[in-house]
Amino acid sequence: MNKKQPPEVLPPILEANNILIKRGGVTVLDIPHFSIKQGKHLSLIGPNGAGKSTLLLTLANLLKLQQGEIYFKGNKIDLSPSTAIAYRRSLSMVFQEPLLFDATVFDNVASGLKIRGIPASEIRHTVNSLLERFGISHLKDRSARKLSVGEAKRTSLARAFAIKPEILFLDEPFSSLDLPTRELLMEDIERNLKEMGTTAIMATHDQMEALRLSDYIAVMNQGEIIQQAIPEEIINNPESFQTNANHPTSVN
Amino acid sequence: MDMIFEGIKQAFFLLFTLDPEVMGITWLSLNISGVATVISLFIGISIGMTVALSRFPGRKFVVSLINTGMGLPPVVVGLFVTIFLWRNGPLGFLEILYTPTAMIIAQSIIATPIVTGITLSAIQHLPANLHLQILSLGATRLQMVWILIKESKLPLLTAVMAGFGGVISEVGASIMVGGNIKGYSRVLTTATVMETSRGNFDIAIALGIILLLLCLCVNVILTHIQQGERLR
Questions:
Q1: Which of A73, A68, A62, A71 shows the shortest CA–CA distance to A39?
Q2: Which residues are in the ABC transmembrane type-1 domain (chain B) (predicted)?
């Protein structure tokens, strides 16, 4: 849509207003406004318990919204199952754990397509191409139980990209990976996000990951976004101790 | 010892000669317990899934009730089903007391908490965010439940074995609600009790051996499937 327009004037693909989530009377998320434009990549950074994962789950319509509205391409996501499913079918989520099914790598990558009732021949073509992209073609018939952590993460990412999501939510996708594997995986995600033009929102602890993969960074603390800007701005003008590299509790 | 030897001899004689009465009793036992197990699977898996995936006030109490129900005494179930189906009872108008239908109802009540408890435990042992991952792949609630069932198929096979084992071997409820009527509601356990009380130990042993063989066959098949899946 409107591909000839410069990205900056595009309307947001996802917008959330007055989001409030409470658990046991405690506010865990309080976001007056959040938006991301099509094709952009945004990282949520902040310490444990800052609300990064809760915000991802809320935006992905996987957590019940207690207050507020979410708009996808200008349309409000209401609570009706049909709207919720239609919205979820335009996104994809990669959790911290790979959360693979007890099936082969091929079947795992195909799972989202099977859920959508895509014909088998189309599934075969899409999955094979994704397995190729993530360098796991040789593992296609292997049981997901017999994968290394890195292989499982790749499979999980291939599954997420297989459904050609308009928005990809990544919750700490590089955690528990050794440095070389993390580097390779980061390259893969970066390349695929660019090639497919996918909008992405990633929660991470690691500023370096955020700086490398994001157009924007949102710094979160205690359920609130305390600063949202381009990476350079976050580095040069940190608004709070959370983004101040000299502070002992800073995100690093 | 002679009595036991005679019993074993009698059991194989009855089996090999395909004694019509014994075959009828065996078939009815399989039929009643099989149907009861299937019913308990539908109800038990649904309740187990719902409780496992929901958060509501009093959930811990409900889980405690389910766990208690796993050890539900068959005679107590038999007593309450009899009261409910008694001529003047709340469901007396159905006129199904002392019928195989009543036995299926009683056995379903016995097996359901067993299946529910094992399902609950199986789903709780899956990764915490798995159901969210499934939903994020675009699944409907029904598709999510089906995938979760497939993901916990090994413990659910245990639920089938435990549920079937619990009802095929129970006698209290079957005697109370079935009445042990020859050729109509007599099953292996009730027939064994009756033959023992008559002093026909050889026939009782024979029926006991048939019951054991039946349980063994069903469990061998299910265990084969379960272990095959585990090693896959």
A1: A73
A2: 26-222
Hey, what are A52's tokens?
């990064």
Asked if the C-beta of B151 comes within 8 angstroms of chain A's C-beta atoms, the answer is yes
- Structural domain harbouring B92: 2-231
ipTM for the complex? 0.89
Is B232 at the interface with chain A, CB within 8 A? yes
CATH number assigned to the domain comprising residue B40: 1.10.3720.10
Of B127, B136, B232, the CB nearest to A88: B136
Whole-number pLDDT of residue A9: 62
The beta-carbon neighbor of B137 closest among A57, A102, A115 is: A115
DSSP letters of chain A?
A: --TTS-GGGSPEEEEEEEEEEEETTEEEEEEEEEEEETT-EEEEE-STTSSHHHHHHHHTT-S--SEEEEEETTEE--S-HHHHHHHHTTEEEE-SS----SSBHHHHHHHHHHHTT--HHHHHHHHHHHHHHTT-GGGTTSBGGG--HHHHHHHHHHHHHHT--SEEEEESTTTT--HHHHHHHHHHHHHHHHHHT-EEEEEES-HHHHHHH-SEEEEEETTEEEEEE-HHHHHHS--SGGG-TTSTT---
Low-confidence ranges of chain A (pLDDT < 50): 1-7, 241, 245-252
* Cβ–Cβ below 8 Å for B129 and A99: yes
User: Are residues B132 and A111, on separate chains, in Cβ contact within 8 Å?
Assistant: no
* Burial tier of B26 (Cβ tally within 10 Å: 0-12, 13-18, 19+): buried
Determine the pLDDT at residue B230. Answer: 64
